[in-house]
Specification:
5 helices, globular, alpha+beta, 5-stranded mixed beta sheet, Ubiquitin-like (UB roll)
Length: 162
């Protein structure tokens, strides 16, 4: 068994420190140590996108990283995306308004992915939206509500929403 490694990660604005086994995934660290249960584990191969988080502002699959790789980094999960306790992030609000979810299992990964996508492309076309969300899988919705939510969030965040 490998020796535990000390790490320090800022998760949703709070410093999380601890000793972890080198083989512990970032997803498991976030769920078990930081208690961020919005980070879902689906395929655990980086295909489904349910474990997507922001690592230093970039969308990444937390199931494909080891927690030790996030040492000294800043992580944002769906729990930390809201503007404050009373105000959802525009993407979260749009998913609610546009019914961009059904069972909800994939939703946290989609919300994070869409937030990162809109930071890079604030005024996407529907085709660009579909390409932007293509790395996340949903088995329930047919994606129409997710595309509509992305369009609404883009408009709310300053894009024109075509």
């Amino acid at each position: 068994m490998a020796e535990a490694v000390a790490i320090s990660v800022k998760v949703n604005g709070r410093l999380q420190q601890g000793l972890v086994e080198p083989r512990l995934t970032l997803a498991d660290f976030l769920r078990e140590k930081a208690l961020c249960t919005g980070v879902h584990l689906g395929c655990e191969h980086g295909v489904c996108g349910t474990c997507t988080i922001l690592l230093d502002g970039q969308a990444v699959r937390s199931c494909l990283m080891f927690a030790v790789q996030a040492n000294q980094a800043e992580v944002t999960t769906v729990e930390g995306l809201a503007l404050n306790e009373d105000t959802l992030h525009p993407v979260q609000q749009a998913f609610s308004d546009c019914h961009g979810l059904q069972c909800g299992f994939c939703t946290p990964g989609f919300v994070i992915s869409v937030a990162a996508f809109l930071e890079a492309n604030p005024d996407p076309t529907d085709e660009e939206i579909r390409h932007g969300i293509s790395g996340n899988l949903c088995r329930c919705t047919g994606y129409q509500g997710i595309v509509a939510a992305t369009r609404q969030a883009a408009a709310t965040m300053g894009g024109k929403s075509r």
